[in-house]
Protein 1
Amino acid sequence: MSDTWVILGATSAMARAFAQALAAEGAALVLTGRDTADMQATAADCEIRGADGVKVMRFDARAPETFAPILSDYEGRTGSLNVAVFVGSMPQQSQIDEDPGLLDGVIQDSFTGPARFLQTIAPMMEARGEGAIVGVGSVAGDRGRIGNYVYGSAKAGFHTYLSGLRNRMGRTGIHVMTVKPGFVDTAMTWGIEGMFLVASPQDVARDILKGLKKQRNVLYTPWFWIIIMTIIRTIPERIFKKLSV
Amino acid sequence: MTWKIDSAHGWGRVLASEGRFARPERASHLKSLMAEAPCPAVGGLRSYGDAALNSGGDAIRMERMNRLASFDAETGVLEAEAGITISELLKVFAPRGWMPAVVPGTGFATLGGCIANDVHGKNHHEAGSFGQHVLSLRLIGPDGTARTISPKKSARLFAATIGGLGQTGIIESAKIQMLPCPALSMDVRERRMDSLAEFLAAFEASTADFSVGWVDATALGTDLGRGVLEEAAFTERASPFYKQAKSKRIPMDAPGFALSGPVVKLFNAGYFRRVPEAGRTRTRPLHDFFFPLDRLHDWNRLYGKRGFHQFQCVLPEAGAAMALERMLKEIATSGLASPLVVLKKMGPGRAGPLSFPMEGYTLAVDFPNRPRVPALLNRLEEQTVAAGGRIYFAKDSLMRAEHVAQMYPELDAWCEAVAKADPEGAFETDLVRRLKLRGQS
Ligand SMILES: Cc1cc2nc3c(=O)[nH]c(=O)nc-3n(C[C@H](O)[C@H](O)[C@H](O)COP(=O)(O)OP(=O)(O)OC[C@H]3O[C@@H](n4cnc5c(N)ncnc54)[C@H](O)[C@@H]3O)c2cc1C
Ligand SMILES: NC(=O)c1ccc[n+]([C@@H]2O[C@H](COP(=O)([O-])OP(=O)(O)OC[C@H]3O[C@@H](n4cnc5c(N)ncnc54)[C@H](OP(=O)(O)O)[C@@H]3O)[C@@H](O)[C@H]2O)c1
């Protein structure tokens, strides 16, 4: 029986690379997200690469009614079941400053939507007593900065949620891994200035798979971001508030 | 953001451009970009000159449009998005017994780029050009609509697209016929060739499916045209074991003297003698055999900041020996050539009016970008025209517009098809403007 992975936000380049890597290992995949046509294309690709069946389903973090069909599909499956969350949105902070109404959407996409989905699936996973959860957060959630603090706070909320979930799920043998990528070369960051040490989506996917094998709890990817973020976190607030890093 | 302001350069790093780049990851985005403001496609940027550059304009980077769409394990027919690289295709399909029928010397070239230059490989004399294995393709025109074309459906547009330098539209995906790939490695037989005459005779006598020659372009006199002939076939030995070689990066631009005349002469002599007098046969993994340079990432930086030129011509069989001798003499006397020199026998296979291949011999020589190089390349260009040959657009950055029609006699037919497909010139690139390929306007 092959492992099944449910991927939320399957249209992200990072999720695509992750799905392709799993496909090559022969996993069964459920790709979920908003753009069904694009997910069909990824599904065809993954089938050819060796996936043991790929299903495409709608998932909208802002529309909880889309959760139920995914959950019932999940219930019908056997073997090890796993979930990976790549959902998130990052409008420019200046846009949110202009239109504060955008804030709720960012929180829903990057935190509360995925959290609510995980909250619902958690007891099903506990009942099976096996499987893993991967939640993609961001180094942006480690400290609020002038450039993207709404997105950062959504990710911080998601990190805290995942840490609590890890605490709970560990008791039934389910591993929860928080992934904190640094800069990754995807559609989200294309054309943004001031990026450095940019990783490819394939690098991130490889790190996630390795992290899972080692049962890492919190994974910075690429690894050196743990150093950068440790430094950034230790800057005293009275100095940090004057910086624009 | 949709657009990134950035610069790009050809592989030779002599020609560069600045402009806006979009990099769609999904078909709907690509189509909406094209409907709004159509512009040329960029593949892996492995063309040496300005084929993929559009100074001051927009361009669409295709590298993320790279998914497999369908595959028939019985027939080896594959459909994929055009941004997928050749090395990815080899990696995924070789273990299942299939490979792209034509494989250029770099795995970083994309499916779309290989079609747009109708590339050739080490089996050209057997398998023909890349475009001859394209069954159909999805082409997005300047109005943003995509249609499927093939040798049966819109045959003229299809032919003009193969080797068409992206001028008919953006290739979104293509269906290709792959070739059986019976092994994951090749038995490569190497033999020293002591002179040009011996080299050409060996090419004529060769029965190998894959063959390519390296020439010492510093050798003169009786050594003129000496080199090493490589002939290869899929191995029949049970899968040999290899240590996976790690790819390396070139961390900085090399200093100018690294490729000076005397250094190259010494290097070439050593490279020649590396093959024992009696020849040798080695078993190499496919990737190493097809893409010997790819393991050194960014090897183009070895030529330093000023970059380099490649001259690649093809000469018709009749008279090739004389023309090659003259060219090699000129090159060796100049003392400007780098060690990267390739000689290969070509078959007649080509698929579009602007395709490069012709039956005969192709010679490719890299030159560091030095002051005397453009004049030398001009002379080689004259000799190519005089011999009835042509220069490869994928490698060129110096050729002159007045020679194009002579080298590419089907230019008019191509222009006509292109004018119909893209009347406003939305897909023009720096190369097309430099060589006035689409007319004098
Ligand atoms: C080390 C090395 C070895 C090489 N060996 C060989 C060889 O053995 N044989 C050979 O024939 N060539 C060889 N080449 C040249 C190379 O194969 C060609 O230049 C090829 O076209 C590069 O593909 P690319 O994806 O990088 O295209 P680019 O260089 O990015 O673009 C080339 C052209 O294709 C067009 N194009 C790209 N994608 C699309 C698309 N999706 N739709 C429409 N147009 C598109 C561009 O507009 C441009 O006109 C070699 C190059 C290198 C660097
Ligand atoms: N790129 C970076 O530098 C970076 C760094 C750190 C963390 N991250 C995180 O990595 C993850 C992947 O991002 P990416 O860089 O690959 O960018 P991306 O392409 O923008 O991916 C974001 C994904 O979230 C989905 N999404 C957004 N809102 C949604 C909603 N309401 N319902 C369902 N799906 C929704 C998107 O789907 P649609 O296609 O439907 O929009 C898309 O699949 C995100 O969580 C991001 O925050 C990225």
Note: The pocket of flavin-adenine dinucleotide (ligand 1) is lined by residues B 11, 40-47, 51-52, 62, 82, 104-106, 109-110, 112-114, 116-117, 119-121, 165-166, 170-171, 293, 394, 429 (CB under 6 Å).
Protein 2
Amino acid sequence: MNLTLKVWRQEGPKDKGNLQTHKLSGVTGDMSFLEMMDVLNDQIIREGGDPVVFDHDCREGICGMCSMFINGEAHGPGRGVTTCQLHMRSFKDGDTITIEPWRASAFPVVKDLAVDRGAFDRIIQAGGYVSVNTSGETLDANAIPVPKADADEAFNAATCIGCGACVATCKNASAMLFVSAKVSQFALLPQGQPERKRRVTRMVEQMDKEGFGNCTNTGACAVECPKGIDLTNIARMNRDFLNASVTGE
Amino acid sequence: MLDSKTPEGPLADKWTHHKNNIRLVNPANKRLIDVIVVGTGLAGSSAAASLAEMGYNVKAFCFQDSPRRAHSIAAQGGINAAKNYQNDGDSVHRLFYDTIKGGDYRSRESNVHRLAEVSTSIIDQCVAQGVPFAREYGGLLDNRSFGGVQVSRTFYAKGQTGQQLLLGAYSALSRQIAKGKVKMYNRHEMMDVVLVEGKARGIIARNLVSGEVERHSAHAVVLASGGYGNVFFLSTNAMGSNVSAAWKAHKKGAFMANPCFTQIHPTCIPVSGHYQSKLTLMSESLRNDGRIWVPAKLEDAEAVRQGKLKPTDIPEADRDYYLERRYPAFGNLVPRDVASRAAKERCDAGFGVNGTGEAVYLDYASAFERYGQTEANVLGLKDPSEDRIRELGKAVVKAKYGNLFDMYRQITDDNPYETPMKIYPAVHYTMGGLWVDYNLMTTVPGLYAAGEANFSDHGANRLGASALMQGLADGYFVLPYTIGDYLADDIRTGSVANDSPEFMAAEEEVKTRLRAFIDNDGKTPVDDFHRRLGRLMWDNCGMARNREELTQAMKDISALREEFYADVRVPGKLDGYNPELDKAGRVADLLELGELMCKDALEREESCGGHFRDEHQTEEGEALRRDDDFTFVSAWEFQGEPKDAALHKEELEYKNIELKQRSYK
């Protein structure tokens, strides 16, 4: 198929960017979106130009590195997929595709389509862990039974890949879905209880410090989330946060 | 002859004894010691976190935008541990035995036993960290079985075990970053190791965003930079996975061990087209419940390839469940190398089932029925219809493997609940790597290698669910202790200067190399060379190898390397974010490694594990090991050109296990 691509180009965080138009032919439905981008870059390099920078690594939807805003949607038109899992069969011959980076002030553009998601790392550093040393000298793994439903729910929350699609999608650039997924994972497990209040307080504090917006319950984040992280996590986080604010640590 | 520095004493006591006797660094002195960790996968993250907890000052590096994205994250199936929770007779000894046997008797007994010993602590540790493993209704941990073993010892978190374990290690790492004990360098690539007076004293790294070349000094350097499967271009590795850190270490004197031992994983989604950039693995756990087959008749295979016949229309009697036929004892659960070769054998014989002729079926129909029947019994349904049973069965399979089925559908546009999946082997893991002694130190003093980057535990073939085990064992429980033995000598060294002549020279060399790429007046993009290298490796150093092809491949790779330096086009600038420049450096190293792999494969005149030589097979076409001549580790010393590498041997002694020709029949 033949495509017209409008790709965001931006030299660095402080530069002004713009959409650049490229024509691309020979694209097949079996290609992933990123393979299509490889073909574009191959063409640009052979013409002596500067290829488009985009983040990507595992190309199987789990590392969370790829991050493209395609035709106004995080990770493009598919549901439950990352950009690397989106295949060109989702597009038609003659389509014009607009490709932009995640847009949020807490995610400054590094170059072109790549953004800096260091804020997510800093939120985890603020408390997204259980404080246990790695000696291996802990309880036997089966010492505390965990009801299957809780374990499954914790797992579902823990499958967040930290890609940032929720932030990119949200009109307020809120990171509540991301933060609440981590808060929920530990809130649902016995191992997470001792630090439960402190964790939610500190992670929310850091989230605010990073400049993410607030949640207005539109639910767009959960719709675009490639891993189907549920909105109930946000409710759980809000409840825990309120509880911690009122009852203290 | 290489000395593995394996401690004396009975096998089962070696590790405990060694830990009790190696030197320790006291807490006050640990604060005076810096350690660099390159890579933040399971081995790197866990090592960095553990070393920081112990009190060392750690600098950790990863090329991704966050340590959480290292490729361990993509491991699907599970992690082994000798917990015997299922009461099926598992034990440390049995895990040790299975690993040695699965590795086709080419791994070091002492290391493997230690791995089996610490395996149980890994599960305890991860649960304590809040890793949400799969559980049974009673609230206890669930297990599944994996290829090459007859017990159920694999812990898992759906098909995302690597993700959950890595996020656990990442959270431990994050905790130390918050405390300031680990300084994290994201989007940084290691460009070289710096040796001062023969010891590894730091690295040259490049800030991939600014392009700045930086000098980082330390008292010891740990490489946890993963495997080199990307030498094949198409593999299940991430796009950025590379050999450069390990290869730079090799060029500075670290021996590269058994580089030809690569694992070709049997259950991947087949290649579909020229622009394909990677292959996707379907967890081996699928072989637990799926049955692998091809049409028994050539004309059926032909009709399937032409799209005239659907697999579901081929009657049972006309299907060849070749693994069950050839290996009745293990059936679909034979080790990976055996399953991969068997698929190749059928496809080479003309029974392949997709357009390229390189695919076999992985069929879940019987699993739907089996699980559905059980579920119907549990629900107390009287005489449920076949459709109802199948629906119930599909729901059970969906709960177990749903994400894998979804992934398959996404990539192929086929619905695996209705028609069998198509799979074919693909490069997945590299057992070879930097040679390390019992303490995980390479042949360069102060330079350590952990996880897939070293060669230590899997011999010639890795068992499923053992990579995660080894990565975390090395990082949490082995290296943080063994490194103390070396660092004990450094308590009075003081901080290591990063402006010594050695550092300045290494920095200059890196800058010159990078500038040469940018200044090169070539025409061809990096990927083009990478793709061609991959084809050469797959065709000549893949699932089956022979003298003639390997000899030719070495020449071809050398010629391709020359062409690369003459004709590669690297756009952009030195200072600034330039992924093409990063790729060029990585492919340059892969172009050298590939040649060494072929040399290693050529000189190993036997078949063992993932290394199959056409010249060495039994009458039935099974791998023929030659224990009298090849019970050793090949450790290669760099001598200017990969083809001139010098061979050093580490003899492998089996005092606790009898060497047998592996049989899964």
Note: The mean pLDDT of chain A is 97.
